[in-house]
Write a structure and sequence with these properties.
The complex is a heterodimer. By secondary structure, chain A is an alpha/beta fold. Chain A has one domain (2-228): Rossmann fold, CATH 3.40.50. Helices cover 33% and strands 26% of the residues of chain A. Chain A has 9 helices and 10 strands. In chain A, the strands form 2 sheets. Chain A has a 6-stranded mixed β-sheet, with helices on both faces. A 4-stranded antiparallel β-sheet of chain A has the order 2-1-4-5. Chain B is mainly β. Chain B has one domain. Chain B contains 3 helices and 22 strands. Chain B has helices spanning 6-16, 282-289, 295-306, and strands spanning 25-30, 33-38, 43-47, 53-58, 63-68, 71-73, 79-88, 93-97, 100-103, 110-120, 125-135, 142-144, 147-152, 157-166, 170-179, 184-193, 198-207, 213-222, 227-236, 240-250, 255-264, 269-278. Classes of the chains: A alpha/beta, B mainly beta. The interface between A and B is medium-sized, with 25 and 22 residues. Chain A: InterPro entries: AAA+_ATPase, ABC_transporter-like_ATP-bd, ABC_transporter-like_CS, Molybdenum_import_ModC, P-loop_NTPase. Chain A: GO terms for molecular function: ATP binding; ATP hydrolysis activity. Chain A: This is ABC transporter ATP-binding protein. Chain A: Keywords: ATP-binding, Nucleotide-binding.
Chain lengths: 251, 308
Amino acid sequence: MLELKNITFQVNDEGSDKEIIRDISLTIPDDKLVVITGPNGGGKSTLARLIAGIEKPTSGQILLDGEDITNLSITDRAKKGIGFAFQQPVRFKGIQVFDLIKLATGTNLSVGEACQFLSAVGLCARDYIDREVNSSLSGGELKRIEIATVLAKASRLSVFDEPEAGIDLWSFQNLIEVFQNMREQIHDSSILIISHQERILNIADEIVVLKDGKLEKQGSREEILPSLMGTASAVPECRKNFVAKEDAQEC
Amino acid sequence: MLEMDEIQKRLLREVADLHKVPEGAYNIRANGESAGRVSTENIEIEPRESGDGLTIRIKPNTKNESVHIPVVMTKSGIKELVYNDFYVGENADVTIVAGCGIDNCGSQDSEHDGIHRFFIGKGANIRYVEKHYGSGSGSGKRILNPGTEVYMEADSSMEMEMVQIKGVDDTNRTTKAELAENAKLVIRERLMTHGDQNALSFYDVQLNGEGSSADLVSRSVARDNSYQKFDATLTGNAACSGHTECDAIIMDKGTILAVPALEANDVDAALVHEAAIGKIAGDQIIKLMTLGLTEAEAEEQIINGFLK
């Protein structure tokens, strides 16, 4: 369980302080898939980065299973059980997909075991396991590999920052299945997805709406989703964010 | 195995991955002398009459054989200049493993300058691996100055892998190549310098024959106060294709100078160069930290991958 208590985050913008996150308190319970939505610029990705430790809050507390992790580094939070999938996955020259998955598990796993994580995100494992995580991979392929690393890490809380950004419709449909499968196997952990895609909101247990850095609404999907339909917080998949079909190899 | 001490054996493992006497033809040079030499039916290794190197002759059509000619030096203060000539027969297909390891615990400089010349016959394929390695706590420098000349006849190919990851204080590498029709040259250089090391690398590739091609890629990391210069010239004298790339990571107070040059003397010469120097991207480190690595471990993984 993750708890945010009165989290505020300010940046200095051309000499004046600007509040990106304003006094947010929020609980992500175990065994739940929570989606944070809201208009662009509302602070969603910043909140995800604060949870992963990439940014440090100006004030407030972050607790993981009751332990204060506010001042822990990214590394220490990862070790405590926080996983983070980047909105724009990072490319590495020379590092292979297998290397990255192995680092994520922190064990000396076999190629066969690593392949299972690629299959879980809908990639044909044998076509990708030896590939370098470099610019030869398309946006959709990279995104799936990014999600595979988070799956491999097996975290207490897995955070996905806009998994739909920059990928094609075909990959997106596949990703929904990936998240549905993750939801089914959530035992004793939780999933937090930053998204304004209607189909992702549709599989949420709880929805949080963030606007202008403030928590606007929070509740079960049944409670919140109807009021979001047709707004920028719940966009049908054909309208936004998608790029042309890519050619990720599936088995 | 041969009459060698433990340090020499360790160096041999580092530069040639040799844990025992290699299969096939070999010559192992230790502290200026041959510590063992074997020729095979198809590959003859002979000392030069002047005593300062080897002549290696590979018969035409020799397939799937290898030649190992590593050099190890463990005495401080040795300076040697060695010439090795390779004559590769037509349609031969062999692997050549060279490389030099220096362990210098003394106060005097140790230096090995190896000049390798390759005369590659028509249709022959060569894979050449050269690793450099230095160790030892002495104040004497470990110096390696390799000179490589490659003369490629029609339809031949050569793949060169040149690696220097650790411990060499000063290196001045010069590589020249001339390619005839449809000859293909691939060079992969990997280099890491640290401390106060200097590494200079010059390439001069002449694409003389129609359909010839060269692909030269250097990946390097400069740490601490080290200095690197990468100077590569591709000259297209016929309808040919050439690509050169210098991709470098700079750290600490390292310095890297990349000087890629192209000269096209034929309207159908297609030549490309790329050069990029930069520090490790912050996002790369953050990504690995989110997987539980410390910042230092993340840097190490990124560099290891980059130089793999």
